[in-house]
Amino acid sequence: MGGAVTSPAILPRVDHLVYATGDLDRGIAEIEALLGIRAMPGGRHAAWGTCNALVGLGPRCYLEILAPDPDHSPAPAGRLFALETLGSSRLLTWVANGTALETLRDSAAREGVVLGDVLSGERQRPDGAMLRWTLTDPRRVLADGVVPFFIDWGQSPHPALHSPAGATLASLHAEHPEAERVRGMLRALDLELTVQDGPAPALFAEIECPNGRVVVR
């Protein structure tokens, strides 16, 4: 990680982190071992063929463990993030909070950053509550996941409010073999994520939790 320093300005922009795994139970066990907190099942995304479990990282920030849903076939475009082909679990990408996503998308496009269409999503929590949101296309994976997509929860309660507490996101930074290009993309999106040169794309989230300060990557 090279002693990277996170800009404090990035932390309020982090809506959630996406920890991708090939099997939800395995991902829950891995995160519990790291953080000392057991994630709570969040529900299914039938349109994407995925399911998740969540750990809160603050009042409006959480860690999402995302896995293939064995009860739902993927959409014709394929399962989100091709999770069924994933080897080891890893911190795949992150999601920034935003509003007026169409305006944001158009502004980014003028700077050469193509976020894709603004879409609608929904899932039903295990308690029956329905969450709905809008987001820029998550299939537009930019800079290997170091550049985020954006989400607006609208009138739905933020998922962090109903996620297991006890952890806090302390820092987020990244490495990428084309760090300068990636930093330019982030600047175009007004995001101050620290990105250092590294041999492979990687995200590093430092989290304060019952096990101390640990790194999820």
SSE inventory with pairings:
Blueprint: E1 14-20, H1 24-35, E2 40-45, E3 50-58, E4 61-68, E5 90-97, H2 101-110, E6 118-124, E7 130-136, E8 149-152, E9 168-176, H3 179-188, E10 194-197, E11 202-209, E12 212-216
Parallel strand pairs: 1-4, 5-8, 9-10
Antiparallel strand pairs: 1-5, 2-3, 3-4, 6-7, 7-8, 9-11, 11-12
Describe this structure in words.
The chain is mainly beta and 217 residues long. The protein has a domain at 15-164: 2,3-Dihydroxybiphenyl 1,2-Dioxygenase, domain 1, CATH 3.10.180. It has helices at 24-35, 101-110, 179-188, and strands at residues 14-20, 40-45, 50-58, 61-68, 90-97, 118-124, 130-136, 149-152, 168-176, 194-197, 202-209, 212-216. The strands form two sheets. Strands 2-3-4-1-5-8-7-6 form an eight-stranded mixed β-sheet. A four-stranded mixed β-sheet has the order 10-9-11-12. A hairpin with a 2-residue loop joins strand 11 and strand 12. It is globular. The chain starts with 13 loop residues before the first strand and ends with a strand. The model has no long low-confidence stretch (mean pLDDT 94).
Overview features:
single chain; 217 residues; mainly beta; 2,3-Dihydroxybiphenyl 1,2-Dioxygenase, domain 1; 4-stranded mixed beta sheet; 38% strand; globular
Helix percent reads: 10-25%
Task: Provide the CATH top-level class of the domain at 15-164.
Answer: Alpha Beta
Gyration radius from CA atoms, angstroms: 16 Å
| Coarse morphology | globular
Low-confidence sequence ranges: none
The CATH homologous superfamily of the domain at 15-164 is termed 2,3-Dihydroxybiphenyl 1,2-Dioxygenase, domain 1
Number of strands: 12
How would you write the strand order of the largest sheet? 2-3-4-1-5-8-7-6
Find the structural class using helix and strand composition.
mainly beta
Largest sheet: 8 strands, mixed
Write the H/E string, N to C: EHEEEEHEEEEHEEE
CATH architecture of the domain at 15-164: Roll
Strand residues, percent: 35-45%
Mean pLDDT: 94
**DSSP helical segment count:** 3
The name of the CATH topology of the domain at 15-164 is 2,3-Dihydroxybiphenyl 1,2-Dioxygenase, domain 1
> Distance between the terminal alpha carbons, to the nearest Å?
10 Å
